[in-house]
Amino acid sequence: MAIGWRPSSGRILLGVPAVAASAIAIPAVASAAGAWSADQVDRSLLELRVVLATAALLLFGAGWLRRRRGVSEARGSARRVMLGLVAGAAIAANFNLFVWTGLHRHEFYHYYLGSKFFPELGYFGLYVCSVQAVQDGGGALPPDLAELTDLRSKERMPASQVLASAPRCRDQFEPARWDAFRSDVARFRAWMGDGVWVGVLRDHGYNPSPAWTLFGRPLASVVPPSPEGLWLLARIDLLLLLATFGALAWVFGFEAACLAAIAWGSCGHTRYQWTGDAFLRQLWLAAVLGGIALLAKGRAAAAGALLAIATLERVFPGAFLLGIGLREVCHWLRARRVTPEFVRFVAGAGVAAVLVVAAATAVAGRGVAVWREFAENTRGMLSFTPRNALGLEYALSFTRVPPPEGLGETPTERQSIVQDYRRRTLASRRVWQVGALALFGSLLAVAAWRGAGRGPDGAPRLRAWEAAAMGCAIVPFATMPGSYYVGFVLAGAPLAIRWPRIGFALLLACLGWSITLVAFGSRAIAFASSSWILLAYALWLLAELAFAQPRPAPDPLSRR
After folding, report:
1. pLDDT tier for residue 260 given thresholds of 50, 70 and 90
2. Pick from 51, 80, 177, 512: CA 20 to 30 A from residue 403's CA?
3. Cβ(424)–Cβ(390) below 8 Å
4. Are the C-beta atoms of residues 1 and 256 closer than 8 Å to each other?
C-alpha cells in the first residue's frame, strides 16, 4: 500500500542512523559468528534486534506524519527503500544472518525421530526407547545420564527408575524399523555429542498434535538423517515465512508486509535459539496469516480451511476462529441473520477439519487412540508452568520472593517446589486475575459488538479478516503459549492499515521484548516482564478496534 510521502533530506535522515547501525552490526556479528559461542552470537543479535525495531519505529513514524499532512509517496521513495532494507535485515537476523546457521539439534531429535517413528513411539516412548536402542546396540550410556524425564508425568526422575518400569521397546517395532530407529539414534547421538544428547532426554518430549504428524512424518520418512537431508528440512520454515510475507504484501501491501517481517525479526522471543533451523515449526503461523489474507481476498472457504488446520496443529490458533465467530454472533444479534461469508468460512473449516483428522489418524499409525494419547500428553504439559511461557497466568504466578520452604537440594526437588509455589502465588492473586479477565472480556465484547455494525461506507466496521486477526489478543488471556509462539502477534500488522497505532504498538512490544531479553537473559523475570508487555499490546489492540476511528480501507480491501 502506497503511503503518502515525498522524500526530503531532513526526514529521510530520521531512519538513516538506525539503518546505518544495522548495516555496521550485520557484518560485525557475521564475522564474529565463527569464533563466538552460540550464547554470544545470540546476545549480539538481540542487540541488533533492538536497533532494527528502533529504526522501524522511526521510519513508520515518518510515514504516519506524512499521511496526516496528505502528502503522497512514490513507490521507490527513500523511506520505503529503507523500510525494505530493515525488513530484510530483520528476517536475516531471525536466521542468525545465514552465517552461524547449523541445525537445531534438540528440535530435530524430537520432531524428526518423534514423527518418523510415531507409530511405535507414540507420545511417551521417545526417551526410553532411545536409551534402550543404545543399550541394544551394545553402546555404553553416558555416565551423567542420572535423570530422565518421564514423558507421561513430564517430571524428571532417576533414570534407573524410569527404565525399570518401561516396556521393552524392541517388541513394539518390526525388526527393520527397530534397526532403522537404532541407527538414527546412533547418528543423532554422534552428531550431537553426549552432553547435548543427555540434555535432550531431560526435555518434555514430542508434543505436536497428530495434525502436525500428518505433515511431518511423510517428510521425515523420505529424507535421511544426514546433514544434507536435515539441512533441506530446516529450509522449509524459511520458505514458509518468505511465502507468508509475500502473501501479506500481495493482499495488504508493502508496508504491512514490512511491518510483519520487522516484527518477526526484531522480536527476541522468535529468535534463532528457540526454533531457528528447526523442522516445520512455522506451519501454524503460515496457516494463520495465510487464512487472514485469504479472508481479505474474499476466499472465505479456503481461509476457514487454513485456520482450522492451524488450530488442529497447535490448538491456540483457535482464538482466531473465536474472533470471527464473536463478530458473527454480534451480527446475528443485530440483524437476526448469518452472513453468507461466514457460512462459507465455517464450511471450509469443517471440511478441512474432517479431512485432516481422518488423514492424521491414518498417518499416525495408532488408530483413533492417538487423539486420546494427545489429550493425555497435553494434560501433562498443562500440569506445570514452563520457564519460557507468556501470558496472564505466567505474569501473575511469577514472584521474586523465594519459597519459604527453600529450593531443595536437587534440580528435581527445585523444579517441584517452584511449580507448587507458582500455583500458590497465582491463587493468592486470583482477584487480580479476575479483574484482568473482566477488563479483557469487556474490551473484546465492545470490539466485537461495534465491529458488527456498519461504517460510513456501508461495510461492516470490522471486516471478517479483521475480526479473525482480533483473535491474537485472545491468546495471552486464554492460554499460556511458549514464548517462541509469540508470532501470533503478527496478525496486528495488517490491522495497522486502518488502525496505524496498532502497528506502533506492535513495534513497541517487539522493542520491549528484545530489551527485556538483553537485560535479563532467559531468567524467569524476562518472561514475566514480556508477559506484561504482551498483555498491554493485546489490550491496546482491542481498545483501538473498540473505540478508535479507523482510516478508510484501501482497495481491494474496502468491502472485505
Report:
1. very high
2. 512
3. no
4. yes
Taking all residues of the chain, what is their mean pLDDT, rounded to a whole number? 89
Q: Per the domain annotation, does 146 fall within a domain?
A: yes
Residues 435-462 have a mean pLDDT of 91
**Burial letters 433-453, b for 16+ CB under 10 A, else e:** beebeeebeebbeebbbbbbe
The reply to whether 174 falls in a domain is yes
Rounded CA-CA distance 131/193 in Å is 14
Judged by DSSP in three states, 492 sits in helix
Is a pLDDT exceeding 70 seen at residue 450? yes
Domain membership of residue 114 (yes or no) is yes
Q: Decide if pLDDT at 33 tops 60.
A: no
Cell of 266: 526484531
Phi-psi region of 156 (alpha: psi -120 to 50; beta: other; left: phi over 0): beta
Rounded Cα distance between 158 and 147, Å, is 4
CA distance 446 to 305: 28
Question: Residues for the chain: how many in total?
Answer: 560
Cα 109 to Cα 193, 220, 348, 483, distances in angstroms? 12, 11, 34, 20
Cell of 509: 512490544
Confidence class of residue 554 from pLDDT cuts 50, 70 and 90? low
- What is the Cβ-side half-sphere exposure of residue 447, based on CA atoms within 13 angstroms? 31
The sign of the CA dihedral 408, 405, 382, 366 is positive
Give the pLDDT score at 2: 31
Confidence grade of residue 40 (pLDDT, cut at 50, 70, 90): confident
Confidence of residue 410 (pLDDT cuts 50, 70, 90): confident
Cell triple for residue 161?
A: 527408575
Cα 154 from Cα 228, distance rounded (Å): 33
**CB within 8 A of 223, min separation 6: which ones?**
229, 230, 232, 233
Residue 31, pLDDT > 70, answer no
Q: Is the peptide bond before 556 cis (omega within 30 degrees of 0)?
A: yes
Side-chain half-sphere of 155: how many Cα atoms within 13 Å?
14
Q: At what angle are helices 227-252 and 210-222 packed, to 10 degrees?
A: 130
Whole domain around residue 139: which residue ranges? 105-225
Whether 175 maps to a domain, the answer reads: yes
Tally the domains of the chain.
Answer: 1
Regarding pTM above 0.85, the answer is: yes
Pair 451, 327: CB distance under 8 Å: yes
